[in-house]
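It is time I had a proper look at our fold encoding. Can you supply me with one protein entry, sequence and fold together? It will help me judge whether the discrete encoding reads sensibly. Leave the record below and I will have a look:
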Amino acid sequence: MNKFTTTFNLTYLQKVKSKSFIIMTAIFMIFIFGLSNVDKIIELFDNDSKTVAIQTDNEMVYKTLEKQYKQSDDIKKVKKVSLKEGKKGVESEKYKRLVQVNVNAEKVSGTIYEKGKVSEKEKLTLQTTLSQMQSSLTAQKLKLSQEDLKTLNTPSKVDTQEIKSDNQQSNKINPKVQSLNTAVVYIIICLSVFIVMNYVNQIGSEIATEKTTRVIEMIVTSVKPSIHVTAKILAVIAVAFTQLFFIALAIVISIFAFDLKGLFEAAGVQYGPETTKIIIYGTIFLILAVISYISLAAILGALTSRIEDLAQSMMPVNFIALASFYIALFSMSNPDTLLVKITSFIPLLSPMVMLLRTLSETTPEWHLILGIVISVLTSVILLIIAARTYRGSVLTYEKGIVKNFKNALNITKS
């Protein structure tokens, strides 16, 4: 036990004190703090004018546009100006834009002046407003009543009704809550891939370097190979969890130190009970992903005979991690596809893909629990195989991962 603790502490402290760990953790925390204050940062650097200038001879048109623009989040003031004054104001950036509207009989036309390219959204908004005005003028000319005009402009009614099976939830999740849930799942999956690929390469390099430099030949004279590799794997897992702890700490500080209510409102999202459930499942699946992938990387690192072959040896781990990431990423808008359902029960793919299924109302709770059980069993089995493989391959230097794996198992049995 004493030798296990020594190896564990030495590996853990060495990696935690490394510059790469400190810099990456600091970058993550700064990014989280920045993201929590993104609305304030944008406002700090946003020097654009919040005033819209309107030029028109029709008072009804002006009042209508004034009311519309004042409802916009990025407009604080609306001012009636002459065409010359408006153009000069736009050029000097005193006004965000100038809207000129001409009314001739039943014909209504408008022009938008802006420094730079006018967005299609802005053109469509003005076009819709002016079209409604033109309809009113046409109705007056044809002596139609307001009720007739309203009936004429009323769109056809189309109802929708969702047919649910007995095992589906009857309650519908708020779209704003669902948007936040999707963002949370996306962030956790991206974080999982980054942590996994970073520490997978670290543990593989750590073990392969010791073996190829023959340092392990001196180590195994005083420490059992199984104890040594187990301590190494758990130390790297502990380093990954330490980094996750600081990331979680930054998130907690952001929640309590900064007012995120305004940020959520600006982003059009809302926190709900389902979000808490997703965060809990996301944390569990993230931890299991880290343990299982690091254990698999330790096995492949132990089977690598030359440090030059390490990148090739780590390809299966990186490929599986990227495959699960892309399956989850491209199925984010539809987590109920057959591909997602099947891969969510496949070991190593399960942590990321099963997390995606938490977004679906049709996913039974037992599917999520089964995904956790599969990931736990996968992690335990890989840890056991890693210890046995390392013990059997520590002093073998033949080329080929498959051949080394067979030799390692044969040595262990004998």
Summary: The first strand starts at residue 51 and ends at 55. The two ends are 25 Å apart (CA to CA).
